[in-house]
Structures are given as C-alpha cells and as structure tokens.
Design a protein that fits this description.
Order of helices and strands: HHHHH
GO cellular component, one term: cytoplasm
CATH architecture: Orthogonal Bundle
Protein name: Barrier to autointegration nuclear assembly factor 1
Keywords: Chromosome, Cytoplasm, DNA-binding, Nucleus
Shape: globular
Helix content: 55-70%
CATH topology: DNA polymerase, domain 1
Organism: Cynoglossus semilaevis
Largest sheet: none
CATH class: Mainly Alpha
Family: Belongs to the BAF family.
Length: 90
C-alpha cells in the first residue's frame, strides 16, 4: 500500500462533521476554491458525490478532474481519503 499523507491520516481519524472541502487529501486551496464555487463547500458534499458515483474510482476521479481540474495524483489522494474514511466509519 502506498504511504498516506498526514492530511489523509487526520481526515480518516475522526468523523467528518462540518470539515471544509480543503481538509480532504489532495484538495488544497486552489482546488478547494474551485469546488466551493460549484457548491461543494464541505467535505461531506464531496463525499455525497463519491457515494452517488457508487464509490467507483474511475468515475469519481473523472468527476473531480472535470469539476475542479484535479490532476491524477490529487484525484487519487482524494479518492483514497474518502474510501478509507468509508471503510473506517460506514
């Protein structure tokens, strides 16, 4: 398994609550602002999209690329973060 960032570990360590979209691994200030402009202002809203896409890696990564211009590393980091959170809490 690939190593995970501190941001990833912090996110997966606790319930999502009202966390900002920028707390997601792979989502920094620039991508976070783009997502917020499209209504995805909280981590749980992005998580909802993740669930709507049935936790499908390819669909979610395509959506992230199309929505905010995330590159493949950012897409993978965000997907992994949400998937691991799912495994821990659902």
């Amino acid at each position: 398994m690939s190593s995970t960032s501190q941001k990833h570990k912090d996110f997966v360590a606790e319930p999502m609550g009202e966390k900002s979209v920028t707390t997601l691994a792979g989502i920094g200030e620039v991508l976070g602002k783009r997502l917020e402009e499209k209504g995805f202002d909280k981590a749980y809203v992005v998580f909802g999209q993740f669930l709507l896409l049935k936790k499908d890696k390819e669909l979610f990564q395509d959506w992230l690329k199309d929505t905010c211009g995330a590159n493949s590393k950012q897409q993978g980091d965000c997907f992994g973060c949400l998937k691991d959170w799912c495994d821990a809490f659902l």
